[in-house]
Batch of 4 targets.
Target 1
Amino acid sequence: MSGTTHPPTDTGEPEFVLSRGTVYVIFSALLAAMFLSALDQSVVSTALPTIVGDLGAADREGWIVTAYLLAIAVVMPVYGKVGDLWGRRTPFLVALVLFLVGSTGSALAGSFTELVVWRSLQGLGAGGLVILSQAIIADIVSARDRGKFMGPIGAVFGVATVIGPLLGGWFTDGPGWRWCFWLNVPVALVALGIAWFRLRLPTRRATTRLDVVGAVLLTLTTSGIVFLTSWSTISSDRRYDWSNPALWALVVVTVVALIAFLVAESRAADPLIPLHLFRSRTFTVSVTIALLFGMTMFAALSFLPTFLQMARGSTATDAGLMMLPMTVGLMITALGSGLAITRYGRYKPYPIIGMGIATIGLAWLTQLTPDISMVTFGAMIFVLGLGLGFVMQTIVIAVQNSVSPDLVGVATSTNNFLREIGAAVGTSVFSTVFTARLATQLGDALRDAPPGDVPQGFGAQSLTPDAVRELPAALRDVVVDAYAHALAPAFWYLVPLAVLGFVVAFFMKEVALSDKSGLEARGVARVE
């Protein structure tokens, strides 16, 4: 492994003391930061129709989600590398400030354009909070003990993903959608206060420059991927029109940028993402699982709350509550596997078990029907949650433990970056498959309906829970049935990806977990 940084001048004693109290205080700030970042990826989803309605931009609502996702994905590798080069305290504080300012600006936005700009700034902060929180834990906690800290982070991520839509619906129906953003302010201020006074991590002196060329090329590649996967939500016709030259130009630019990035990284003195990391089987298997995990799980989760609103006539808040069994399953295995890793020092079995259980959960979801009982539905997503909890943070531990302490930030950011890209690609492909099936199902279902009962322009692209609730009862039943019969088989497209993740997990080489924290290993801290 190449070392690109040096600790501060040695004075004979490590300059940083890691007491148990210090670790837990720092961890509380990291937990709050992770919660904020995860929550804001989901809290806006149920509030979107109201937000764009108030701001007069119903035809551009996809940009609110796309801007946030793009900002997060673009900055993840940069935060990871900067933390490795110069230390993580300052970038973490910067990320918190960006997130706080972006949240405040989003809450006060008076136009759609302003909201997109502030939302992008919020994403620039959120991307750093995810990466740096996990990397700082690697700095202050040994790999052997890291499971009992990563487990709660995985649980918090799962809780935030599920309660986000619930809170978004509650705010929209109650005090107003702007509280989706105001909610972040007090939590971010507390995290910022703790980090400012208690997050006293050593700084470092970089001996090489930041790989600016690699950062620019990766930004172009990531932007292309995100825009391609979001094309149907940001384009004027709400679909992929492959006769559109702009779409093909975007494909070409993305491919060229990716090739150029790989060439640049192979030649850079200190690359943004060192390609030699992929020579490690543990690293390669872990990030491959992260990619497949993102493609399958986030695609599945993005459609289940909407299914409940369609099939059961539930409100957004009720749909969020009905997703709680998944959170319970995730918390059980995230916390349990973390404690087991700390106790027994083994981590390889958990991604295998997790991907296996998740595959069963996805296959079971192919049996969704409009009249499914909530007990059966709860059991389905509980099983899915069990699988998620075993995998989510275990692969982060594996990735961090497979590299030298000087490369923990890069390894962590690569893992999360590929998971985000996987989520974008998987959700887009799943959405395309589902929408195509829905268009066919709806066409067949509406063919015999009285013309006066079908609203003008009603179809797969305009199908929302509110639109379905306004249909005549008989037609509503037909539409809901078509929706369920289009969604359930679409999960079969995710099952092979989950199976592939399950098979790949067997090839992970288990590296003995280090009993020293990253700061200890670099000789700049001691434990009390």
Note: Confidence is low (pLDDT under 50) at residues 1-13.
Target 2
Amino acid sequence: MADQTVQADVCVVGAGLAGLVAAVEAADAGREVVVLDQEPPQSLGGQAHWSLGGLFLVGSPEQRRMGVRDSLALARQDWFGSAQFDRPEDYWPRLWAEAYLDFAAGEKRAWLHGMGVRFFPVVGWAERGDGRADGHGNSVPRFHLVWGTGPGVLAPFVRRARAHADAARIRFLFRHRVDEVVTHDGAATGVRGARLAPSDAERGTASGRRVVGEFEVEAGAIVIASGGVGGNHDMVRRLWPERLGTPPRTMVAGVPAHVDGRMLPIAEAAGARVINGDRMWHYTEGLRNWNPVWENHGIRILPGPSSVWLDALGRRLPAPLFPGFDTLGTLKHLRATGYDYSWFVLTQSIIEKEFALSGSEQNPDLTGKDFRLLASRLRPGAAAPIEAFKEHGEDFVVARTLGELVEGMNRVGEPGLVSEPAVRAVLEARDAEIENAFGKDAQVTFLRAHRKYLGDRLIRVAAPHRILDPRHGPLIAVRLNILTRKTLGGLETDLSGRCLAPSGRPVPGLFAAGEAAGFGGGGMMGYNALEGTFLGGCLFSGRVAGRSAGA
């Protein structure tokens, strides 16, 4: 029997970015909204807080100032070439993809700009693709960093939510874990669950699950915005698709444990349909955080394209599996090696110019809007967070000679697995292609081409040089772990954000947004993401679901 009963017009499950957007949009429509989250209030904003704050925009002023010519037609070619929709279940994801592209090329930037969001002037070129014009990848730079990173994306919605809370239009109930969506005659009419003991756990850390009571919320509309499954490695392995090989035995966690996917089967029990559960987005460039926030905390390297990528046995990855090009293509290749890790081999010159770490806490200059600290990136030496990982991180090997480097790789990896003569042969062959302006090494050709983009030449791509040139040393090897991150499938929704039953009919009163909905439709990105699309998908689907629920 519930010892707490709450009534509202709209109930939002999840206080992350998608949930916040849905809540404020519904409140703007004059509805009384209650927002539930199993975490304490210090975790308001969910995963968006930890993000780098990159957004996918098309034809922006920032692109034009950097000399990038983009268009909705080119973005559509890239999106659908990456998504590779091929299932009957892709009907709504396709429509969501079209709608999101219109949003990204249309009002998205102006909508955010009107709420005070500002962008770093250099547009990043993420996920450069598989080498095919009509295949996966971004043909042009589209990764727009928000000034303030993830917290900067959240700020206007937190501000709006708090204003609504002050006016008693939004009520936050933290430490409320939903265990059931209540239905009557097939319609969602509320939720039930457990009240958890208060917790002073810091954001991202385990907050405990001791139950102290029960609750029920009665509402005319329920919005599921509870996130994905990346913190639940058992579920990740169960959903792992055969096309990507066998599931890894060991992974690092790119999200906290509370990203557990538990609301997906709960919504299914209420009549909703989950589709494309085998579509997921995990990175191959994960580092074990030397200063972790949550258990098994992983940080992703955002690499420039110069590092030489070797598998665990010291063999170079084939073209076009270069750093920053094709995430899932690389993951599939590496799973076939039988090992859960791989290596970057690079120089000090490369790490200073090309290495960045994903996450708001790893970019204090951008997160804190600190111009003086930002200017330090232009001075010699790697950024302070990179140097800290190089000094303290268990995945880094730094050496004066190649022999010492390989010795360290075998110490950090597995004894005797990497051969110094074999690695030397790979590096010397690659270095021979640097000696003149011509050559057949595809990675070197890409390096030279990408440096024609002003943003890459200024802050992202080192001048091509020989890896074994001691003037660019010391040599560095970085062990790369598989890092869990995003769920690309989810609850199937129509273009109003309404959850659909297996019959294709809407479940009355039930909506979904954000990662729980595959960022829209149950998987609007298909098989591959173009980066900057996760936060953007939360913004767009949260806005759609909030406005629909509010109506």
Note: DSSP finds 18 helices and 20 strands in the chain.
Target 3
Amino acid sequence: MELLTANFAPFMFAGLILFLLLGFPVAFSLGACGLFFGFIGIELGVFPASIVAWLPQRLIGIMANDTLLAVPFFTLMGLILERSGMAEDLLDTVGQVFGPVRGGLALAVIFVGALLAATTGVVAASVISMGLISLPIMLRYGYNRPVSAGVIAASGTLAQIIPPSLVLIIMADQLGRSVGDMYKGAFLPAFILVGFYVLFVVALAIFRPAMVPALPPEARTYREPNGSSGYPSLFVVLAISAVVAGAMAHYMPQLHTWWQGEAVDVVPTDEKVVVAMCGGVFVAWLIAALNRLLKLGLLSRLAERVTFVLIPPLLLIFLVLGTIFLGVATPTEGGAMGAVGALIMAALRGRMSWSLLKQGLASTTKLASFVMFILIGSTVFSMVFQAADGHKWVEELLRNLPGGQVGFLIFANLVVFFLAFFLDYFELSFIVVPLLGPVADKLGIDLIWFGVLLAVNMQTSFMHPPFGFALFFLRSVAPEKPYIDKATGKRMEPVTTMQIYKGAIPFVLMQLVMVGVLITFPGLVTGSLDAQVKVDMDAVGAEMRESLEGSSGYGTGDDAATTPAQDAASDAQAPAAASSAEPTPPGAEGYGAESDDPMKAMNDALKKK
């Protein structure tokens, strides 16, 4: 028993691992392990029985957490958009735009995957949609099977890191940081990762063109009556939008000065980007709308199609993320606006129905309940673990690693990478992050940077052969047997599981390279954050002390003014008062010292704080 009492925290952690290996659901494993060791700890005297009284307060705190409301809101937004046919329209349109280029279909999948990630935030929805729509087309026109599978699975996992990612919401909650800051920090790394995927496809198009062929002319459907492609007018619209966006970004301080009626010299970069892109997108939509309304005939079929298909989701992205980045709305409010915007978009497209709404609400409820049960279980476990000083055990274990901050970051990412073979990102966020976060904070690591770093690493949990969830999602929709292609009538071979695994490996390596890049260049995350305001508590204490000394009742106000005669009288009375005073009881010296000088006590307390 002495061994168990002296090493209670390690035994408790080992018990959790045993529960998980036995195959119990994670939420119930966490809760059962916490309660089991909690009762044992009370019996052994490791911690007091009052720990049981802490549990209801912790659970009520979970229910009252407004930040977690963003999870069902963003989930509902993504499900409504995905089931209203937006993914099909995007893949069809963007595929036609990039089709004539080698690797164009793969580039279209990456671009649409990023766009779906910024609107849906749900990996399963993105992978299944693109697997059902794009995979048959890529196989039809001769794309390499592993490359096709890898591109689709990896593009779907972008929902992990591109805001409004659900894992970033959970990460911010567990690390005690702002969701808005987490979104800002992840913005640039997410699109750098997209750039890695694009470079991989471009390299294949250059060095292995047979693996990623271009679409044949007969497959390009959006052509003009005279047979032209319609690209010139599309490029003109894009150029006008880019010029408008660039001008707005350049003259943003002047626009703010005009809007607010007072001089504004500096505008944050994220605000410039969001407002400028929103302005450019709106101008493109206005040109297409006027062209169709007035029947001017200035735009080609392709240009009109691209504008009317791409603009609504882009505007929704700017509405949600823009208001969060600009500080106009909280992530919860942004998620609510996004859900309402998705419902409006589905209604305007004529695809809104009661069955669609019920499906979306049912799926959202299931996911939100799943998250809530895991959070409750992890709260029970962490409460008992901390009562047993488990956080100190973990801290001492990890702070003594060689290499300081870099050594800790490498170790933490290796742990997350290997655990991701068996656990998904929700489970990792609730089990591992609460243990690693306090240690990172003690080592002086910026927790936003640390959270984004772990989020990129957790993205590999969807791509690990053989347990990656994205690979399972793709396997569920990829053809398992030979089939006859509807468009060409040819017999097509199936996509094997090993081909899916083989295609995932290059993208897992790219994700790990991205982890290394973020460790080497933390400014990619922290550079987009607002400067932290540092408060000098000593100066605050001194200012409060001066304020108290200058007020009445503390010896320097008008009421405290005395005459020389009164001073002499008080001096004469002082020895008598001192002699008649009762002696100070033993052990009360500290209290007497503090009560004699309340300003000093307050200043000391502020310094300790």
Note: Residues 109 and 152 are 7 Å apart (CA to CA).
Target 4
Amino acid sequence: MARSVASIVAGRMVAGAPGGTLQRPNPGRTAELVTEVSLGDAATFAEAAGAAKAAQRAWVDVPAPVRGSAIGKIGRLVEANKDRLARIVTEEIGKPLAEALGEVQEIIDTCDFFLGEGRRLYGQTVPSEMPDKQLFTFRNPMGAVAVITAGNFPVAVPSWYLVPALVTGNTVVWKPAEYAAASAHALYELFVHGGGLPDGVLNLVLADGEQTYAGLEASLEAGLVDKVGFTGSTLVGRKIGALCGSHLQTPCLELGGKNPQVVTPSANLDLAVEGALFSGFGTAGQRCTSLGTVIVHESVHKDFLARFDAASRAARIGDAFEDVLYGPMLDERFARRYETFLGWVKDHHRTYGSDGVGRITAGNPRKGFVGDPEAGMFYHPVIVDGVRRDDDLFLTETFGPIVGVTTYRDFDEAVELANAHGYGLSAAIYTTDPHEVWTFRRGTSAGMVSVNNTTSGAEAHLPFGGNGKSGNGSRQSGQWVLDQFTRWQSMNWDHSGRLQKAQMDVATLEPDMSFRL
């Protein structure tokens, strides 16, 4: 039976569907209806922002260690519901169950890390240049935070925002991807019940992109939103950034990627292939950190390509509840868009990796497919060799199971190619040469670098984020995300009983500059 979900504002489910309704099928079994979504509209978003704003003062008055304890209890409740939440994710977006379980574990890890941050929201005492005067710094919450997240990681990525925002004393209006509404609703319930959150501290808005933007615009204009966090495409991120900038706000933007993997002559090729397979085709290539282009030295190009082709052909693809590398596309819109990316394969390219290109069907089969390909939106993995630096396949993020391959002659060229697309999220290098490692680290524009590891993967205590077309330099996860959800306040306390003017009434010690040995 399909789950019915709707927006929740100030602890109450929003009646009706002012934004229309959405019926969400299982993308791996499209005949099965998973979720019926009652969508809100711009007014719903603004109402939720108002509820968050109204609840914020009482929430910040809850002592920070108590808020941290609430986060810890949320982690324990998520842990107790780990298998069920993962299955909801797999049913709704077709992510393989093993990956979905890993995604839920990431929520638990994030809660475990931030449990202690409620006791570590440190400021500093700073020495004054005046006697009988003390200087202090404090971390204050931003206020009411709007969080807008994508659906490819429907529960892990939202936790990167929700957990630090709540522990630092902010309240939240959260707008998840509407095609992952059941996963979002389940996570909302776990947060509210696990943390004992008062009404209005966390609000859930289910709406489409157009209504969300209009609601955000109205909320910013009304002074109801003090910070915006957005995970999604570069195109939409630019619009969000411009809107926030017009209100003198700096959003947290985590956007797309065209992530390179450099393979050097000294690389362990089997390891490099294993990394390329997972980061290129895991989640059907529908990650911001998915591998975009392999940049392989010409001396090992032929060998690497043969191994990569063989590994791709041998990979199990299909039913997400089975042991597979990847399942279906997340949603019909991504399937349609992916087919436009396949149109970028040109005559100077050669394709490898599967028995066909495009959608897997009885007429376009994939050897060893797991399950019924006609039941869902499944696509062949595609390796495209001969990619040039002016190709669309090289320059633009391709959200789907397609990986480009190009070659380089000298290491400087490899670094240049790794940056040439203008994104800067994640980059990997496979080598046994320490000099190449450090040269690549200095030269890459990516916010995250992997050595002999994949472009995909994050840990709860390491900063996550990109530069260029991949983001505005903001970082999530670990202690670094605190700078996104707090602002520094300084305080001076003069207890001398007289007015002391900085830079004017400062005592000085007289040196004897004429002294010589």
Note: The first helix runs from residue 42 to 60.
